[in-house]
Specification:
186 residues; 4-stranded antiparallel beta sheet; single chain; 2 domains; 9 helices
């Protein structure tokens, strides 16, 4: 049985889900961002207890098909930006359509309706958060960051960063107080 979990954006979230499933005596075959495969069926009581436990950690079980699809879009984007260095070989729209077996126009309209923002803006916001993270925690220069995140040039990265944050990347790096958002809040 597959369950879908909202706001699951990091390795720590996966650990929490595994722990809560084990606590309920449920056996999983896999736990990935946004979903878990469980060997047995879950009773409604187990589902309620699991949801309560996950809510305490800021996570939530999802049953609505539209919400599940939106979470899948978010998960694909988060994995692509934060957890892989491989570039998408096609347009983001084609990539999402292929991965989710849906027309991109449908995905884009659904995402905008549910999240109140476009897929493109969500994608760019995550790219900028990754740039911030790399500026703060890594020893990469701006050229290396632009290359790592598949920007066409340092100028393109810098312009997008300034447009989204109001600061240049260099100015952001020099700030004493660096505000990086939790991935669940991007």
């Amino acid at each position: 049985m597959k369950i879908y979990i909202k706001n699951m954006v990091c390795t720590r979230c996966k650990m929490i889900v595994k722990y809560e499933l084990e606590k309920l005596g449920l056996h999983y075959t896999s736990v990935e961002l946004g979903e878990a495969d469980i060997k047995e069926d879950i009773s409604s009581e187990q589902q309620e207890r699991l949801n309560i436990a996950l809510n305490k950690a800021g996570l939530e079980l999802m049953t609505d098909k539209k919400s599940v699809l939106v979470e899948k879009i978010k998960t694909i984007i988060i994995e692509q930006i934060h957890y892989t260095d491989e570039p998408i070989k096609v347009n983001l729209s084609d990539y999402l359509s292929e991965k989710l077996n849906h027309n991109y126009t449908y995905l884009a309209n659904l995402f905008s309706e549910v999240k109140g923002t476009t897929i493109e803006k969500f994608y760019l916001a995550h790219k900028i958060e990754k740039v911030k993270e790399l500026l703060v925690y890594d020893d990469l220069n701006l050229s290396e960051i632009a290359w790592k995140l598949h920007y066409s040039s340092v100028a393109h990265l810098s312009n997008q960063f300034k447009k989204m944050t109001g600061l240049t990347p260099s100015h952001f790096k020099n700030l004493k107080y660096k505000k990086i958002k939790d991935l669940g809040n991007v």
